[in-house]
């Protein structure tokens, strides 16, 4: 008779401590078999040297090493989740699957399929809130409608927030004896899945008191190394959002704290309005007649538009998988307004390249730049990519760092004239939305 087990399914929560679903699983009555599935539905769209796949794989190997000290490990699988669970059910006496909520449209569909399959076998499927403080419809207007403007959402968020209740840390270390005692669970190399190690490395996050205290003062200047690099770590759950909120509150930095709340704002927007992945939140903006010039799009992607801040940002992205937040706004505005290229093209390119790619934030920010989203900049607000340099990179330090041929004959000519492109954008948008 096979021994009864519960599974904990790691996904966007790649840490052993302060992981609510993992904590709950370890308190169940059956030993816990930890698993991770490299989902082919997602991986098949990615390049062989994708830095995020390398990061996930390396993180899991460190977690496996840690659990092997406790006589256990993490079983790694490669395939479609439902097919993987069919295989697991044939080998283990599975009682329950425990995991943490995921809010993206594909994840909801995947979880519904897995849950249906498991229920046919009388196996429980339980999920818990872990990657946010407030989720789904926990922060809504008094009439139950979702907020579509950030500031009132943020005010209600803070009003309902209770640090003792919402930032309780769930320590798991003393409960690791409740794992399945088997340290040789299935493992995978990157090459087993058709991947190779990326040369791009996800940087460690920096949430020292100094970074948090100086965040507001320095965050808009791309030449300063003043951002936390928390994005990928929150995305893949290598840090707990509760611990990060605690740090922000301890340093009494409202701006840093509110950036974490922005993330939850966009997540609840995606939850309430999943169609905004493909369509404008403000429907009339889908009438904008995009030019979608492929040659200009290539210039934008390669950082060869002749606008130094745009080009520096795109080259930074292509080389490192990261772009400074201030520059992201300039780059996105340039694509949508100066070039009149569909925001969905830019969103897809960022999704391919960004180490901290998060569907809800990426869609939310691109729609903001295009003027079509919730709480969006009005369409007639068009960033001037040249005056942005004077404000935020006056000494051209950031630009010179990323554009070797800057101020030489090799640097490309401007692909559009700012004044003409601005007037064209205003005319095109006005026609669409009036």
UniProtKB/TrEMBL annotation:
InterPro entries per UniProt: Crypto/Photolyase_FAD-like_sf, Crypto/Photolyase_N_sf, Cryptochr/Photolyase_FAD-bd, Cryptochrome/DNA_photolyase_1, DNA_photolyase_1_CS_C, DNA_photolyase_N, Rossmann-like_a/b/a_fold
Site (Electron transfer via tryptophanyl radical): 290, 343, 366
Cofactor(s) this protein cannot do without: FAD; (6R)-5,10-methylene-5,6,7,8-tetrahydrofolate
One Gene Ontology biological process: response to stress
Location of the Photolyase/cryptochrome alpha/beta domain: 4-133
Transmembrane segments: none
Cofactor comment text: Binds 1 FAD per subunit.
GO molecular function: deoxyribodipyrimidine photo-lyase activity; DNA binding; FAD binding
Family: Belongs to the DNA photolyase family.
Protein's name in the database: Deoxyribodipyrimidine photolyase
Organism whose genome encodes this protein: Marixanthomonas spongiae
